[in-house]
Specification:
4 helices, single chain, about 80 residues, mainly alpha
Length: about 80
């Protein structure tokens, strides 16, 4: 199941479309395992995406990434 909440051409905060999709699911409270199952990906692939998301957002944790993601419209 895809979220459908990410506009096709948007690159919020410099994230790829897949990274934005994963970040949306993280912000909804899903675990890496749940995200992997939902997007039909290996959990390791999701972990790799999450690490790239953290780097792009300058976040050290899931909580910091979610906070930065929530602030994206304010910047």
């Amino acid at each position: 199941m895809r979220t459908g909440s990410i506009p096709r051409m948007a690159r919020p905060l410099g994230l790829s479309l897949r990274e934005a999709e994963i970040m949306t699911l993280i912000a909804e409270g899903h675990s890496n395992r749940e995200i992997a199952a939902q997007l039909v990906l290996a959990e390791k692939t999701v972990k790799n995406h999450v690490n790239r998301i953290y780097a792009k957002l300058g976040a050290q944790s899931r909580v910091a990434a979610i906070a930065r993601w929530g602030d994206r419209d304010a910047t």
